[in-house]
Amino acid sequence: MKFNYKNNSLIAKLCDLDFRLLLVISLVSFIGLLLMYSAAQGSLHPWAIKQSIHFLFGVGLLIAIALTNIVFWYRFAYIFYGLSLGLVILTEVMGHTAMGATRWLNLGIIKLQPSELMKITLVLALSRYFHNLHINNIRKIAFVIPPVLLVLVPCALILKQPDLGTASILLAIGGAIFFAAGVAMWKFGAVLLLALIAAPIAWNSMHDYQKQRIIIFMNPGSDRLGSGYNIIQSKIAIGSGGLFGKGLLHGSQTQLSFLPEHQTDFIFAMVSEELGLLGGITVLILYSFIILYSYRISLNCQNFFGSLMSMGAITMFFLHVFINIAMVMELVPVVGVPLPLLSYGGTIMVTVMFGFGLIMCAKIHNTPFEKDKIIKFYLNN
Fold first, then answer.
1. CA distance 191 to 17
2. Cα(51)–Cα(377) distance, rounded to whole angstroms?
3. CB under 8 Å to 138, separation ≥6 — which residues?
4. pTM score of the predicted model
5. Are 18 and 363 in contact (CB under 8 A)?
6. pLDDT digit string (tens) for 25-42?
7. Distance of CA 199 to the CA centre of its chain
8. Strands (DSSP E) found in the chain
9. How far apart are CA 153 and CA 163, in angstroms?
10. Tens of pLDDT along 231-269?
C-alpha cells in the first residue's frame, strides 16, 4: 500500500475530523464552564470567561494539529522533545516559584509550565523510537536503555521542582507505550522489584509535605484542620449531593468556600455536591466514551507511529482523570493533578487538546508508511 502524500485538500481533511469525539469533548468542557460559573457564585468572572478563551484556543490548536501531516510529527519528534527538555532545565535555573515549587517560566503574558509540554513531547519521542525499532530488537535490553533514559531524565528534573504528580504521570505514560510497543513483561516485573527495593531511599528523599500527604491518606482524621482538611471537605461535598444534587449555586461546601480549590483539583467533588450522583455518573460516562473511543482509534491505526502516538496521548488523559477522581474520593493520596476539560487552567487545557489533536491526526492520516517513504517526503518538502 502506498502512503498518500497528495491528499492536501483542506476541505477533505476537515471532513475527516472526528466530530463525534469533538462533540463529547465540547460537552464535558461546557459542563466545566457551568461549574466555574457556579464556583464564582453566579459570575462569569474570573474563571468561566478565561476558560472559554482557553477552550476556543484549544479547539483551534486541536484542528491545526489534526490536519498536519503525521510525518511532520514523526520528523520533529526528537526536536520537540529536546526543546521541552531544555525548557524544563531552564525552569531549574530561572523558573517562577509559587507555593514552594519552581514549575513555571514567567513569559510576561503567561506563565508556562514546561513539565506539561514534556508529557506530549515524550509521547512523540517514544513513538518515533519504537516505530524505528525492529521487532526482533524490542526484547533486547540494550535497545530498551535509550527510551528508558528518555523517560527518566525529565522525571528526575521534574521531581526536583518538586512535582511528584507530573513525574508519576510521565513514568506511567512511558510504561504504557513500552507495553504497547511489545517490551517483555519480565522487564516490567524487574522495574517493579527495583522500585520496591528503592522505596526506603525514595521516602527519605521526599519533601516533608509529600510525606505528610501519604500519612494523611492513611489516616485523614489525624490532622482534620491541617493536611487532612481538603480530603475531609471533599468527602463531605461528595456525600451531601445525594442522587440529584443541590443544584448549581446551591452547594454549601462550594458556595461557603469550605471545599478548597473547587474550581481546579477538587472540581469533581463540586460535581457530586451540586449535580449529585447522576451528574457524577454522567461525567464518568462521557469520560469513558472519550477514553474508549480514542483507544479504538489507536488500535485501528495502520502505522506503528500513529498507533503509539495516539495510545500515549489518550493514556495521558486517562491518567489525569483516574488520579484526580480517585484523589478526591480518597482512593489515592492527594496530588496536584487537575481534572482535564473540567478543571480551570490554560496549561492543562492546551496540553489535553494537543493530545486530542494527535489522536485525530493519527485517524485522518491512517496510512502505512516506512522509512524510505518518509525520506522521500522530506526531499519533496
1. 39
2. 39
3. 130, 144, 181, 182, 183
4. 0.90
5. yes
6. 999 999 999 999 999 988
7. 25
8. 96-98, 101-106, 111-112
9. 14
10. 888 899 999 999 999 999 998 888 887 888 888 899 999
